[in-house]
Amino acid sequence: MRQGTVIRAAGGFFAVSDGDGRGYLCRARGLLKREKASLMVGDRVLFVPPQDDQSGSKTDSTIISSGVGVIEELIPRTNRLSRPLVANVDQLVIVMSLKNPPCDWQLVSRLLILAESEELAAVLCLNKVDLLTREELKDVAGMIEPYPYPVYYTSAVNGDGIESLQEQLVGFCSVFAGPSGVGKSSLLNAIQPGLNLKEGPVSDKIKRGRHTTRQAELLLLDGGGTVVDTPGFSRLDFTGLKPEQLPGLFPEFDSFLGLCAFRNCMHLAEPDCAVQQQVGDTLNAMRYGHYKYFMTELLQQQR
Ligand code: GDP
Ligand code: ZN
Fold first, then answer.
1. How does pLDDT run across 198-248, given as a tens digit for each residue?
2. SS3 at position 243
3. How many secondary structure helices (H) and strands (E) does the chain include?
4. Which pLDDT belongs to residue 37?
5. 151 burial class (0-12, 13-18, 19+ CB within 10 angstroms)?
6. Which end is more exposed in the chain, N or C (fewer Cβ atoms within 10 Å of the end residue's Cβ)?
7. DSSP state of 211
8. 125 Cα: distance to centroid of ligand 1 (angstroms)
9. H helices within 159-284, ranges in order?
10. Are 153 and 129 in contact (CB under 8 A)?
11. Ligand 2 centre from 263 Cα, in Å?
Protein backbone atom coordinates (compact mmCIF):
# COMPACT_ATOMS: atom_id res chain seq x y z
CA MET A 1 0.00 0.00 0.00
CA ARG A 2 1.12 3.53 -0.68
CA GLN A 3 0.33 6.88 0.82
CA GLY A 4 -1.16 9.60 -1.31
CA THR A 5 -3.38 12.66 -1.33
CA VAL A 6 -6.77 12.96 -2.97
CA ILE A 7 -6.44 15.87 -5.36
CA ARG A 8 -9.75 15.55 -7.20
CA ALA A 9 -13.05 13.77 -6.62
CA ALA A 10 -15.94 13.20 -9.01
CA GLY A 11 -18.59 10.58 -9.56
CA GLY A 12 -17.18 8.11 -7.07
CA PHE A 13 -13.68 8.31 -8.53
CA PHE A 14 -10.71 9.88 -6.82
CA ALA A 15 -7.47 11.17 -8.30
CA VAL A 16 -4.71 10.31 -5.87
CA SER A 17 -1.25 11.84 -6.06
CA ASP A 18 1.61 9.92 -4.48
CA GLY A 19 3.65 13.05 -3.81
CA ASP A 20 6.26 12.14 -6.42
CA GLY A 21 4.26 13.65 -9.26
CA ARG A 22 2.43 10.43 -10.10
CA GLY A 23 -1.34 10.36 -10.18
CA TYR A 24 -3.65 7.37 -9.91
CA LEU A 25 -7.32 6.98 -10.57
CA CYS A 26 -8.89 5.18 -7.62
CA ARG A 27 -12.14 4.01 -6.19
CA ALA A 28 -12.78 3.80 -2.48
CA ARG A 29 -12.98 0.49 -0.64
CA GLY A 30 -16.63 -0.30 0.14
CA LEU A 31 -16.27 0.48 3.80
CA LEU A 32 -15.01 4.00 3.08
CA LYS A 33 -17.75 4.61 0.54
CA ARG A 34 -20.60 3.72 2.86
CA GLU A 35 -19.82 6.44 5.36
CA LYS A 36 -21.51 9.15 3.37
CA ALA A 37 -19.16 11.66 1.74
CA SER A 38 -16.36 10.27 3.83
CA LEU A 39 -13.57 10.93 1.36
CA MET A 40 -12.82 14.42 0.15
CA VAL A 41 -10.18 16.39 -1.68
CA GLY A 42 -7.15 16.95 0.53
CA ASP A 43 -7.56 13.62 2.32
CA ARG A 44 -4.42 11.64 2.89
CA VAL A 45 -5.07 8.00 2.14
CA LEU A 46 -3.46 4.60 1.88
CA PHE A 47 -4.13 3.08 -1.51
CA VAL A 48 -3.25 0.15 -3.75
CA PRO A 49 -2.28 1.37 -7.22
CA PRO A 50 -3.92 -0.25 -10.25
CA GLN A 51 -2.43 -3.66 -11.10
CA ASP A 52 -1.72 -2.84 -14.71
CA ASP A 53 0.02 0.43 -14.08
CA GLN A 54 2.28 0.40 -11.05
CA SER A 55 4.17 3.44 -12.26
CA GLY A 56 1.20 5.76 -12.47
CA SER A 57 0.82 8.65 -14.82
CA LYS A 58 3.75 11.02 -14.91
CA THR A 59 1.77 13.95 -16.16
CA ASP A 60 1.16 15.68 -12.84
CA SER A 61 -2.50 15.75 -11.90
CA THR A 62 -3.82 14.34 -15.15
CA ILE A 63 -4.61 10.70 -14.72
CA ILE A 64 -4.02 8.47 -17.71
CA SER A 65 -3.61 5.08 -16.06
CA SER A 66 -6.03 2.63 -17.59
CA GLY A 67 -6.56 0.63 -14.40
CA VAL A 68 -8.26 1.75 -11.25
CA GLY A 69 -6.61 1.62 -7.85
CA VAL A 70 -8.29 1.13 -4.52
CA ILE A 71 -8.22 3.49 -1.56
CA GLU A 72 -8.05 1.31 1.52
CA GLU A 73 -7.70 3.72 4.40
CA LEU A 74 -8.27 7.32 5.37
CA ILE A 75 -5.56 8.91 7.50
CA PRO A 76 -7.12 11.15 10.18
CA ARG A 77 -7.53 14.78 9.07
CA THR A 78 -5.89 17.74 10.71
CA ASN A 79 -8.82 19.95 9.69
CA ARG A 80 -11.65 20.34 7.22
CA LEU A 81 -12.85 23.53 5.58
CA SER A 82 -16.38 23.69 4.24
CA ARG A 83 -15.95 26.54 1.73
CA PRO A 84 -14.17 25.34 -0.29
CA LEU A 85 -14.75 21.76 0.79
CA VAL A 86 -11.25 20.47 1.41
CA ALA A 87 -9.30 18.67 4.13
CA ASN A 88 -5.83 19.14 5.65
CA VAL A 89 -5.27 22.76 4.69
CA ASP A 90 -2.08 24.17 6.26
CA GLN A 91 -2.14 27.84 5.49
CA LEU A 92 -4.17 30.74 4.22
CA VAL A 93 -2.47 33.11 1.79
CA ILE A 94 -4.33 36.40 1.91
CA VAL A 95 -3.77 38.30 -1.31
CA MET A 96 -4.47 42.01 -1.63
CA SER A 97 -3.30 44.51 -4.17
CA LEU A 98 -1.91 47.80 -2.96
CA LYS A 99 -3.46 49.67 -5.91
CA ASN A 100 -6.19 48.86 -8.44
CA PRO A 101 -7.99 47.93 -6.23
CA PRO A 102 -6.49 49.48 -3.07
CA CYS A 103 -5.86 47.21 -0.12
CA ASP A 104 -8.82 46.62 2.17
CA TRP A 105 -6.97 46.34 5.47
CA GLN A 106 -10.07 45.63 7.46
CA LEU A 107 -10.86 42.71 5.19
CA VAL A 108 -7.32 41.46 5.79
CA SER A 109 -7.97 41.42 9.54
CA ARG A 110 -11.32 39.73 9.01
CA LEU A 111 -9.68 36.97 6.96
CA LEU A 112 -6.93 36.62 9.56
CA ILE A 113 -9.54 36.12 12.28
CA LEU A 114 -11.23 33.43 10.17
CA ALA A 115 -7.85 31.75 9.64
CA GLU A 116 -7.10 31.90 13.38
CA SER A 117 -10.48 30.45 14.27
CA GLU A 118 -9.82 27.53 11.86
CA GLU A 119 -6.33 27.21 13.34
CA LEU A 120 -4.72 27.85 9.98
CA ALA A 121 -1.37 29.57 9.63
CA ALA A 122 -1.70 32.76 7.61
CA VAL A 123 0.51 34.96 5.51
CA LEU A 124 -0.25 38.24 3.80
CA CYS A 125 0.70 38.85 0.19
CA LEU A 126 0.61 42.48 -0.94
CA ASN A 127 0.57 42.40 -4.71
CA LYS A 128 1.01 44.93 -7.54
CA VAL A 129 4.00 46.61 -5.89
CA ASP A 130 5.02 47.66 -9.42
CA LEU A 131 2.23 50.28 -9.31
CA LEU A 132 3.67 52.04 -6.25
CA THR A 133 6.54 54.47 -5.84
CA ARG A 134 9.23 53.73 -3.28
CA GLU A 135 7.74 56.38 -1.00
CA GLU A 136 4.30 54.85 -1.19
CA LEU A 137 5.73 51.42 -0.39
CA LYS A 138 7.60 52.85 2.57
CA ASP A 139 4.36 54.38 3.86
CA VAL A 140 2.61 51.02 3.63
CA ALA A 141 5.45 49.25 5.42
CA GLY A 142 5.38 51.94 8.12
CA MET A 143 1.65 51.71 8.58
CA ILE A 144 1.69 47.97 9.19
CA GLU A 145 4.70 47.99 11.49
CA PRO A 146 4.71 45.92 13.65
CA TYR A 147 2.61 43.31 11.89
CA PRO A 148 2.00 39.94 13.54
CA TYR A 149 2.07 37.87 10.32
CA PRO A 150 4.61 37.26 7.56
CA VAL A 151 4.17 39.81 4.76
CA TYR A 152 5.22 39.31 1.15
CA TYR A 153 5.43 42.21 -1.28
CA THR A 154 4.92 40.87 -4.78
CA SER A 155 4.35 41.76 -8.38
CA ALA A 156 3.01 39.21 -10.81
CA VAL A 157 3.99 41.66 -13.56
CA ASN A 158 7.70 42.17 -12.87
CA GLY A 159 8.31 39.11 -10.69
CA ASP A 160 9.16 40.96 -7.47
CA GLY A 161 8.82 38.73 -4.41
CA ILE A 162 7.54 35.74 -6.38
CA GLU A 163 10.43 33.50 -5.35
CA SER A 164 9.92 34.20 -1.64
CA LEU A 165 6.21 33.57 -1.90
CA GLN A 166 6.96 30.35 -3.77
CA GLU A 167 9.22 29.17 -0.93
CA GLN A 168 6.42 29.83 1.53
CA LEU A 169 4.22 27.33 -0.36
CA VAL A 170 6.68 24.41 -0.45
CA GLY A 171 5.49 21.42 1.53
CA PHE A 172 2.16 22.95 2.51
CA CYS A 173 -1.40 22.84 1.33
CA SER A 174 -2.37 26.48 0.84
CA VAL A 175 -5.64 28.16 0.13
CA PHE A 176 -5.59 31.64 -1.39
CA ALA A 177 -8.12 34.27 -0.38
CA GLY A 178 -8.79 37.84 -1.35
CA PRO A 179 -11.17 39.91 -3.45
CA SER A 180 -11.28 39.38 -7.20
CA GLY A 181 -8.93 41.49 -9.26
CA VAL A 182 -6.08 41.55 -6.75
CA GLY A 183 -3.98 39.08 -8.75
CA LYS A 184 -4.48 35.63 -7.21
CA SER A 185 -4.54 33.84 -10.56
CA SER A 186 -1.70 35.95 -11.93
CA LEU A 187 0.46 35.15 -8.89
CA LEU A 188 -0.13 31.43 -9.21
CA ASN A 189 0.64 31.62 -12.90
CA ALA A 190 3.84 33.51 -12.12
CA ILE A 191 4.77 30.82 -9.61
CA GLN A 192 3.96 28.04 -12.02
CA PRO A 193 2.88 28.83 -15.57
CA GLY A 194 0.02 26.60 -16.61
CA LEU A 195 -1.62 26.48 -13.20
CA ASN A 196 -5.07 27.90 -13.35
CA LEU A 197 -6.78 29.16 -10.26
CA LYS A 198 -10.48 29.06 -10.97
CA GLU A 199 -12.23 32.26 -10.19
CA GLY A 200 -15.82 32.28 -11.31
CA PRO A 201 -17.80 35.49 -11.41
CA VAL A 202 -19.83 36.19 -8.30
CA SER A 203 -23.15 35.51 -9.98
CA ASP A 204 -21.86 32.07 -10.94
CA LYS A 205 -21.19 31.24 -7.31
CA ILE A 206 -24.66 32.29 -6.26
CA LYS A 207 -26.27 30.27 -9.03
CA ARG A 208 -24.47 27.18 -7.87
CA GLY A 209 -26.60 27.47 -4.79
CA ARG A 210 -26.41 26.28 -1.24
CA HIS A 211 -26.84 22.60 -1.86
CA THR A 212 -24.18 22.11 -4.46
CA THR A 213 -20.94 23.09 -2.76
CA ARG A 214 -18.51 22.15 -5.46
CA GLN A 215 -15.58 20.03 -4.37
CA ALA A 216 -12.33 21.85 -4.61
CA GLU A 217 -9.31 20.50 -6.47
CA LEU A 218 -5.70 20.54 -5.42
CA LEU A 219 -3.15 21.95 -7.84
CA LEU A 220 0.28 20.35 -7.55
CA LEU A 221 3.22 22.74 -7.42
CA ASP A 222 6.43 21.58 -9.10
CA GLY A 223 8.43 22.74 -6.10
CA GLY A 224 6.31 20.56 -3.78
CA GLY A 225 3.16 21.59 -2.01
CA THR A 226 -0.37 22.08 -3.21
CA VAL A 227 -2.77 24.94 -3.74
CA VAL A 228 -6.55 24.72 -3.53
CA ASP A 229 -8.01 25.83 -6.87
CA THR A 230 -10.90 27.72 -5.31
CA PRO A 231 -10.32 30.86 -3.25
CA GLY A 232 -11.23 30.39 0.37
CA PHE A 233 -13.36 32.22 2.89
CA SER A 234 -15.86 33.75 0.53
CA ARG A 235 -18.26 33.93 3.47
CA LEU A 236 -16.97 36.56 5.84
CA ASP A 237 -19.42 36.57 8.72
CA PHE A 238 -18.28 35.62 12.21
CA THR A 239 -21.06 33.09 12.76
CA GLY A 240 -20.68 31.31 16.06
CA LEU A 241 -17.87 33.52 17.31
CA LYS A 242 -18.36 34.89 20.83
CA PRO A 243 -17.04 38.35 21.78
CA GLU A 244 -14.82 36.90 24.51
CA GLN A 245 -13.08 34.73 21.89
CA LEU A 246 -11.96 37.70 19.81
CA PRO A 247 -8.88 38.77 21.84
CA GLY A 248 -7.49 35.25 21.48
CA LEU A 249 -7.72 35.55 17.70
CA PHE A 250 -5.34 38.52 17.69
CA PRO A 251 -2.03 36.71 18.31
CA GLU A 252 -0.20 39.97 19.04
CA PHE A 253 -2.40 40.44 22.15
CA ASP A 254 -1.25 37.12 23.62
CA SER A 255 1.50 38.41 25.87
CA PHE A 256 -0.77 41.11 27.37
CA LEU A 257 -3.92 39.10 28.01
CA GLY A 258 -4.31 38.55 31.73
CA LEU A 259 -2.40 41.71 32.64
CA CYS A 260 -5.40 44.04 32.56
CA ALA A 261 -6.94 45.40 35.77
CA PHE A 262 -10.24 43.71 35.01
CA ARG A 263 -10.14 39.97 34.56
CA ASN A 264 -12.93 40.10 31.96
CA CYS A 265 -11.43 43.13 30.21
CA MET A 266 -12.65 43.47 26.61
CA HIS A 267 -9.80 45.93 25.88
CA LEU A 268 -12.14 48.64 24.64
CA ALA A 269 -12.27 51.55 27.09
CA GLU A 270 -11.55 49.93 30.44
CA PRO A 271 -8.97 51.63 32.69
CA ASP A 272 -5.58 49.96 33.25
CA CYS A 273 -5.91 47.84 30.15
CA ALA A 274 -2.59 46.25 29.17
CA VAL A 275 -3.68 45.96 25.55
CA GLN A 276 -4.76 49.57 25.13
CA GLN A 277 -1.50 50.73 26.74
CA GLN A 278 0.53 49.00 24.01
CA VAL A 279 -1.35 50.49 21.05
CA GLY A 280 0.99 52.52 18.87
CA ASP A 281 3.93 50.93 20.66
CA THR A 282 4.24 47.12 20.41
CA LEU A 283 0.70 46.86 19.00
CA ASN A 284 -0.22 48.17 15.59
CA ALA A 285 -2.81 50.97 15.83
CA MET A 286 -4.65 49.97 12.69
CA ARG A 287 -4.98 46.35 13.86
CA TYR A 288 -6.30 47.55 17.22
CA GLY A 289 -8.83 49.71 15.33
CA HIS A 290 -10.03 46.59 13.55
CA TYR A 291 -10.24 44.77 16.86
CA LYS A 292 -12.53 47.47 18.26
CA TYR A 293 -14.66 47.45 15.13
CA PHE A 294 -15.11 43.67 15.15
CA MET A 295 -15.73 43.57 18.90
CA THR A 296 -18.51 46.12 18.48
CA GLU A 297 -19.95 44.00 15.68
CA LEU A 298 -19.86 40.85 17.82
CA LEU A 299 -21.40 42.60 20.83
CA GLN A 300 -24.24 43.90 18.65
CA GLN A 301 -24.85 40.44 17.19
CA GLN A 302 -25.31 39.13 20.71
CA ARG A 303 -28.23 41.40 21.47
P1 GDP B 1 -7.76 37.53 -9.29
O2 GDP B 1 -9.17 37.89 -9.59
O3 GDP B 1 -7.41 37.82 -7.87
O4 GDP B 1 -7.39 36.14 -9.69
O5 GDP B 1 -6.86 38.55 -10.14
P6 GDP B 1 -6.18 38.33 -11.57
O7 GDP B 1 -4.99 37.47 -11.45
O8 GDP B 1 -7.22 37.94 -12.56
O9 GDP B 1 -5.68 39.81 -11.88
C10 GDP B 1 -6.56 40.90 -12.03
C11 GDP B 1 -5.91 41.98 -12.90
O12 GDP B 1 -4.76 42.51 -12.24
C13 GDP B 1 -5.40 41.46 -14.23
O14 GDP B 1 -5.66 42.43 -15.21
C15 GDP B 1 -3.91 41.28 -14.02
O16 GDP B 1 -3.19 41.42 -15.22
C17 GDP B 1 -3.60 42.39 -13.05
N18 GDP B 1 -2.46 42.08 -12.18
C19 GDP B 1 -2.27 40.93 -11.46
N20 GDP B 1 -1.12 41.00 -10.76
C21 GDP B 1 -0.58 42.21 -11.02
C22 GDP B 1 0.60 42.89 -10.57
O23 GDP B 1 1.41 42.38 -9.79
N24 GDP B 1 0.81 44.15 -11.05
C25 GDP B 1 -0.06 44.76 -11.91
N26 GDP B 1 0.23 45.99 -12.33
N27 GDP B 1 -1.18 44.15 -12.36
C28 GDP B 1 -1.44 42.90 -11.92
ZN1 ZN C 1 -7.65 44.99 28.55
1. 544 433 433 444 444 467 899 999 988 999 998 888 778 888 899 999 999
2. helix
3. 8, 13
4. 53
5. middle
6. C
7. S
8. 13
9. 162-169, 184-191, 202-208, 274-278
10. yes
11. 8
